[in-house]
Write a structure and sequence with these properties.
By secondary structure, this protein is of the alpha/beta class. 52% of the residues lie in helices and 17% in strands. It has one domain: Aldolase class I (TIM Barrel, Alpha-Beta Barrel), CATH 3.20.20. The chain is globular and about 70 Å long. It starts with a strand and ends with a helix. Bound molecules: erythose-4-phosphate. The site of erythose-4-phosphate has 11 residues, from helix 7.
């Protein structure tokens, strides 16, 4: 399973990339706004931190504007992936940009039928939002499972990019049901390594080692 980082925090992305945990990055207009940085500049800098896809989202609402913006964003770097909303206009733009071999990430997916449409227009990734479904007491993970089944039924190559991940349990569940990619904030990715018994065991090992008086 690929790990994408859902952030525009360059230091946090670089730290995880150094460990070997970054297969790509996703952003959205809210993440860019939070960074306080110029959109194109920050995307260009993120693109240097990974060879994987870096999603940059269009803000136009009709297909022509999305296509125009997508082509501009794609010029920032070879690994830019154009992120498009799951609307009819976004699907039309996805169809066009895919035909130009521009990688696409169709975002704001909340139903299996929406995911089916994204696959039909050749999206590189579909981004179902788990956390936002859970927030309204629906089952985000059930959506990931349904999309996996539908894509496997018909051999669609669109990758299931599980988004809006809020917890380490979301990551485990995604791995179990076969999401191709997860995108999560740096904090969640770092917490995957945490276990109280690991900390306790390591402290005991180091104490016992110190008592031997040896060094390596
Ligand atoms: C994914 O591409 C989105 O940027 C992101 O996962 C949204 O997460 P949120 O629902 O926590 O804002």
């Amino acid at each position: 399973m690929k790990f994408f980082i859902d952030s525009a925090d360059l230091d946090a992305i670089a730290e995880l990339a150094d460990i070997g945990l970054v297969d790509g990055v996703t952003t959205n207009p809210s993440i860019i706004a939070k960074s306080g940085r110029d959109f194109k500049e920050v995307i260009a800098e993120i693109c240097k931190l990974t060879d994987g896809h870096v999603s940059a989202e269009v803000v136009g609402t009709d297909a022509e504007d999305m296509i125009r913006e997508g082509r501009i964003l794609r010029k920032i770097a070879d690994n830019v992936c154009v992120k498009l909303p799951l609307t009819m206009a976004g699907l039309k733009a996805c169809n066009q940009l895919s035909s130009e071999n521009i990688p696409t990430n169709v975002t704001l997916c909340f139903s299996a039928n929406q995911a089916l449409l994204a696959a039909k227009v050749g999206a590189t990734y579909i981004s179902p939002f788990i956390g936002r479904l859970d927030d309204i007491t629906l089952d985000g993970m059930e959506l990931i499972e349904d999309i996996r089944t539908i894509y496997d039924n018909f051999g669609y190559e669109t990758e299931v990019l599980a988004a809006s991940i809020r917890s380490v349990n979301h990551v485990k569940e995604c791995a179990l049901v076969g999401a191709d990619v997860i995108t999560a904030p740096p904090k969640v990715v770092k917490s995957l390594a945490d276990h109280v018994l690991t900390d306790k065991g390591l402290a005991a090992f180091l104490k016992d080692w110190e008592a031997t008086g040896q060094s390596i």
